[in-house]
Design a protein that fits this description.
The structure is a single chain. This protein has about 300 residues and is an alpha+beta fold. The chain has two domains: about 1-170, Regulatory protein AraC (Jelly Rolls, Sandwich), CATH 2.60.120; about 180-290, Arc Repressor Mutant, subunit A. The protein has twelve helices and eight strands. The chain has helices spanning about 1-15, 30-35, 40-45, 125-145, 150-170, 180-195, 205-210, 215-225, 230-245, 250-260, 265-275, 280-290, and strands at about 30, 55-60, 60-65, 70-75, 75-80, 85-90, 95-100, 120. The protein has a five-stranded antiparallel sheet with strand order 1-7-2-5-8. Strands 4-3-6 form a three-stranded antiparallel sheet. Helix 4 packs antiparallel against helix 5 and helix 6 (about 180-195) packs parallel to helix 9 (about 230-245). The radius of gyration is 20 Å and the shape is globular.
Length: about 300
């Protein structure tokens, strides 16, 4: 058990592959810390990805919010994050884990068989722990070597990860309690936020679509995640804004417009209120850090402008 954990720690810290390692056939692997690019907010603020993500925790413990549900997380925990799933992760200073950035389809467009729902599994079986550590180890070496047919190899190993995950889901099918209706409501709300955070919709609009009152939605969110419904929407919007501010040269007013803020001034006040810095100050700081090699920014696709115009 200790040997497999130590091997996983070693393989993610060698090689200096930047933020997440080189992309190989749409699949890449790196440490969870690399996902943060040297900043806590990239992991701790609610955010989502447009591809499947598998996390394997090898050291430490912390807290996580996965699609609106808060839980503790620790060593030998596996977390599967489907596309469009809200995630917040805090492993603390001693925590360590690996992140496999996957593809939903394999060779020739074959479905990888990954689950559609988020998964949080506590893996107690030593053999299962060794299996996933071994697969990730091979993927890391394949990614680093960049040999011929590396794309096909990475996709093949991703399929093995999918098989491993589905077997563990079967083995742990009876572990957790049934999700109550209030938590299912929160999960549905988070799925909508991940999809529509850049729209002009307010929290009350989401509540109306879900057929509940804003008060009921807020109460359910606070019980499940420790955050209000408005907090969840704010964190996702702030993450998108800050990412575009710090990793692109896009005009700041265009960023605000793409996220449907009513004016450049309102957008600036929103960012200043939640970060303590203006958008222009955040951008300058990120540029200085990048030039000094303290971060490895990588731009995400810009959010298309929708809804209200300035």
């Amino acid at each position: 058990m200790q040997a497999s954990t130590a091997r996983a720690d070693h393989m993610a810290t060698r090689g200096g592959n930047g933020a997440s390692g080189p992309v190989t056939g749409g699949v890449r692997i790196g440490s969870i810390a690399q996902m943060g690019r040297g900043t806590a907010w990239r992991l701790e603020h609610l955010h989502s990805y447009d591809y499947p993500l598998l996390l394997w925790i090898t050291r430490g413990q912390g807290r996580m919010i996965l699609q609106g549900l808060r839980s503790g997380i620790g060593t030998h925990n596996a977390v599967f994050v489907p596309p469009g799933t809200l995630l917040s992760l805090d492993l603390g200073k001693q925590g360590f884990g690996l992140a496999a950035h996957l593809s939903a389809t394999g060779p020739e467009g074959r479905d990888m068989g990954l689950p559609e729902e988020p998964q949080h599994l506590r893996i107690r079986d030593v053999q299962a722990q060794a299996e996933i550590s071994g697969i990730l180890d091979v993927m890391q070496r394949e990614q680093t070597a960049q040999r011929p047919y590396a794309d096909e190899a990475m996709l093949a190993h991703s399929m093995l990860l999918s098989v491993w995950l589905r077997r563990q889901m079967m083995d742990h099918a009876d572990d957790g309690p049934r999700i109550p209706a209030a938590h299912r409501l929160v999960q549905a709300y988070c799925a909508m936020v991940a999809r529509d955070y850049a729209s002009p919709k307010l929290m009350g609009d989401y509540a109306a679509e879900l057929g509940v009152t804003p008060t009921h939605l807020t109460r359910s969110c606070r019980e499940a995640s420790g955050l209000t419904a408005a907090d969840i929407l704010t964190q996702r919007s702030l993450y998108a804004a800050r990412d575009m501010i710090e990793t692109t040269n896009r005009p700041l007013q265009d960023i605000g417009q793409s996220l449907n803020f009513s004016s450049p001034a309102y957008f600036s006040r929103f960012v200043q209120h939640h970060t303590g810095q203006s958008p222009s100050t955040l951008r300058r700081s990120a540029q200085r850090d990048s030039a000094a090699g303290r971060t490895a920014p990588a731009a995400l696709p810009a959010v298309p402008a929708r809804g209200r115009a300035f």
